[in-house]
Amino acid sequence: MKIVNFAVKRPVATIILVSVILILAFFTYSKLAVDLYPEMKLPYAAVITTYPGTGPEEVESQVTKPLEGTLNSLSNVKEIQSVSSAGSSMILISFNWGTDMGAAISDIREKTGMIETFLPSGAETPMVLKMDLDMMPVVQMGISASDDMSLAQLQSIAEEFIEPRLARIGDIAQVTITGGLEREIKVDVDPVKLENYGLTLSGVNQVLQAENFNMSSGKVKEGQREYYVRSLQEFENIDDIKDVAILTSSGNRINLNDIATITDGYKDDNQITRVNGKPAVGIHCVKQSDANTVAACEAVKAAMVEIEKELGMDLDVQIIMDQSKYIRDTLKTTQKMMVEGGLLAVFVLFIFLRNVRSTFIVFIAIPLSIITTFILMYFNNSTINIITMGGLALGIGRMVDDSIVVFENIYRHRSMGLPPLEAAMTGASEVGSAVIASTVTIMAVFFPILFAEGIAGVLFKPLAITVSFAIFCSLMVALTVVPLMSSRMLTDKSMQPQLTKGKIAEWFETMGSWLDGLGEKYKVLLSWALSHRRRVVLIVTVLMIGSLALIPLIGAEFMPKMDSGEISVSIETDKGSLLKATDETVADVEGAIKSIPEVVTIFSSIGSSSNMMFNTGTQNDRASLYIKLLPKDERNKDVDTIAEEIREKVGNIAGAIIKVSVTDASSMGGTGGPINVQVRGDDLEMLEQISAQVTDIVRKVPGTREVTSSLDKGNPEVQVKIDRKRAAAYGLTPRQIAAEIQNAMLGSVASTYKNEGDEYNIRVRYAPENHKELDYLENLPILTQAGAVVRLSQVASFSMEPGPVEINRLDRVRTATISGYL
Considering the chain, what percentage of its residues have pLDDT values greater than 70? Predict the structure, then answer.
């Protein structure tokens, strides 16, 4: 063969060519990014629309259905899911794999823009998002401080120092702060005084807005110069807010502090964050869509080290979640297996060949094939991940096959007395065609994977390409490097036995004799098989059928489980529970978990409800805990055993539904349980009944746990039904009354207060000690246009009812999903 002749006759050119390839390989390897899986651009988009003050059924009929109707005409759409909840609509559009998501997003924006004018006036403009795994935080940290530092100070440090520094990192797209205390100017109005002066909360808001402004007022000339005129009326201190003058209905002027208490304080707690029982602030970093996870995580951690040094404060920074740790640990394990596999291959080769030089000549195919594979990975835009590294590990054993066949034939000719150069050329040329045929055959097995579609194609195309190229490189090594080295290294002296004395030599001699004897036994077995062909065919057929029969017993799953050392706990207390009550339950759970010695960190977020991609808001009756365990090599129990131990310890805590699940990197962000049963139908009441029956059925199946239905009961609520006729008699509209209730219960941000370059909300509300009670709501004073005061109970009725549930739809049909764990 020409390639063999060239390699053997021109050793200098061959060595130079191999050296250039190795240099290029090392260069490309240094440029390869590291990740857990091949890059996956999910074919999903979301359309989110807020419609404040409305229930799920109103959101569904007035927002979700019209949007679904127009989005249904998009091309390449696989399915459309939607969730209509109180005040918001979220539509998730799933496209076929391979869809150009840039063009798809543009089409969605065009479709939603066409229907915006038909949405109700209170609905905000639909927001279109491209859903991606990159929207998940890659690093989450909990920052706590010494006892002499308040949570407000910690929040200030996070906002003024940490968040800006991390946001400046090129690979980081967004930094979110949770927990802590946010500064806010509170104007707590006394409702009795407000009523006595004939004022309303909306009137107070208007006065504050009118008093707090800066305005450009034109220009003025003075001599040969021209000056800009600005009216500076913004509040400079809290006293300016207290001294705001308000004109009463009787024509008198009063100051704001005559009817309200103005305090420079903090927003009411709606979320609590703790790390190992200590109040903390959470920092969540999301990377850019085109950034590498490992590089982004390393940049964040390096920046935090610098920030701690610069601040010089006693801050306790706990890395709660670091996606790069999954990647590094997984790849480290894979690389370790590759090294061990390579060494084992060397050992087996040496047992058979019993010659150091011969073993080295054959073994050189493994590192050369692996290293040169990085060139193709670089130009194919592949990353070093568990799939590509697994492909290399898979091909290690095959990489030496071609070299063994070539070298064995060269060795045979050399033993027959041919000179080294002639033996190398003759031996390699004789088996060259057979070696090429066997290699191409194996590559052909992986060829169809290149045409796979969907997530299978995304995951396994890099595997097929990596294995194929590694095997092709091993073929080139077998036809060039092996003959070249054989022609130079197979001297008469080197072909003599390497080990002749000592126990090791005796052991290898014994192994050699055993292998030779194994060959003789194989001859006997082969002779028997050829003499009993029918029996051999029957045995093979029975074994094949038996193997197929075992398939149902093996089981199947998308990805193998991984011991990530991380556990998540979700807690749901009674509907409508106060944040304080939920916090007490979480404290009990934390206490139970702390007793487990393998637990290192407990990150608690009380009042949060979040899913895979984004936060869905705060709910006082919800909480989530993130538990980090000792490294795997420092504990005797696996993560599943510890999760089961946590279930047993928290199972006796009353008043809450507690779910414990293992955080598995192999799930790629999935949050659903392994069991999902879907019920579809348009009648919401019938759907709820059937889903409850299905939930009971699933719960009775042995091996299931934590079975829930998406059609869970909503939060209890006080339903206010305004009597339109009575309201009209007093000159009021239902919307005016509803707005007054909203102002009384929630308050409203009237303006902002600027201080040292920062802006803080000025929130006007009724004094909180009043509006917490139901009696106060019934007697809420409402000022009519005539200046008279009407109690809410005079124009409305009240009832305590369970709140509406979220309405889920799939392909424009209502659905209920029953999910559970094993």
Answer: 93
Q: How far apart are CA 32 and CA 389, in angstroms?
A: 12
Both structure tokens of 167: 């946001």
How many angstroms separate the CA atoms of 454 and 42, rounded? 10
Residue 631 carries which DSSP code?
A: P
pLDDT digits (tens, 9 = 90+) for 210-259: 888 888 878 888 888 888 888 888 888 888 888 888 888 777 889 988 88
**What is the three-class DSSP state of 424?**
helix
Torsion sign, CA atoms 488, 491, 495, 501:
negative
CB 198 within 8 A of CB 250: yes
CA dist., res. 674 & res. 481, Å (int): 51
Contact residues for 755 (Cβ-Cβ < 8 A; gap 6+): none
What CA–CA distance (Å, rounded) separates 14 from 17? 5
Total number of residues shown for the chain: 822
Q: What are phi and psi of 190, to 5 degrees?
A: -80, 115
> What is the number of other CB atoms lying within 10 angstroms of the CB of residue 682?
10
> For residue 544, with 0-12 CB atoms within 10 Å meaning exposed, 13-18 middle and 19 or more buried, which class applies?
exposed
Structure tokens at 347: 């050992």
| Average pLDDT value over all residues in the chain | 83
pTM: 0.72
Beta carbons of 116 and 125 less than 8 angstroms apart: yes
Q: Which amino acid is at 116?
A: E
Which residues face 384 on adjacent strands? 34
Determine the residue type at 140: Q
Decide: 285 and 300 in contact? Cβ < 8 Å: yes
The tokens of 10 are what? 């021109």
pLDDT in tens, 308-343: 888 888 788 888 888 888 788 777 877 787 788 778
Per-residue burial over 404-441, b = 16 or more CB atoms within 10 Å of its CB, e = otherwise: bbbbebbbebbeeebebeebbbbbbbbbbeebeebbee
761, burial (CB in 10 Å: exposed 0-12, middle 13-18, buried 19+) = middle
* C-alpha triplet 403, 405, 410: angle, nearest 5°: 90
Q: What is the pLDDT of residues 11-64, one digit of tens each?
A: 888 888 888 988 888 888 888 877 777 777 778 899 999 887 677 888 899 999
Do strands 127-131 and 44-50 pair parallel, antiparallel, or not at all (unpaired)? Answer: antiparallel
Q: Are 296 and 35 in contact (CB under 8 A)?
A: no
Higher pLDDT, 254 or 180: 254
Tokens for 496, please give them: 């003599």
Distance of CA 294 to the CA centre of its chain: 14
Count other C-beta atoms under 10 Å from residue 180's C-beta: 25
Structure tokens at 680: 């579809």
| Distances 195 to 208, 259, 767 between C-alpha atoms, Å | 18, 10, 13
Instruction: Tell me the residue ranges of DSSP E strands in 315-440.
Output: 315-322
Contacts of 88 (CB under 8 A, 6+ apart): 48, 49, 50, 51, 59
pLDDT on residue 804? 63
Q: In what order do the strands lie in the sheet with 260-266?
A: 260-266, 183-189, 758-766, 748-755
pLDDT confidence of 614, banded at 50, 70, 90? very low
- CA separation for the pair 653, 588 (Å, rounded): 8
pLDDT over threshold 60, residue 170: yes
> What is each CA distance from 326 to 322, 386, 665, in whole angstroms?
8, 11, 7
The angle subtended at Cα 235 by Cα 234 and Cα 237, nearest 5°, is 150
In the block, residue with structure tokens 């059609």: 711
Residue 548: how many other CB atoms lie within 10 Å: 9
Give the dihedral sign, CA 210/762/240/755.
negative
Exposed / middle / buried, residue 494 (Cβ in 10 Å: 0-12, 13-18, 19+): middle
- Collapsing DSSP to helix, strand or coil, 163 comes out as helix
Give counts: helices (H), strands (E), the chain.
30, 30
Contacts of 379 (CB under 8 A, 6+ apart): 28
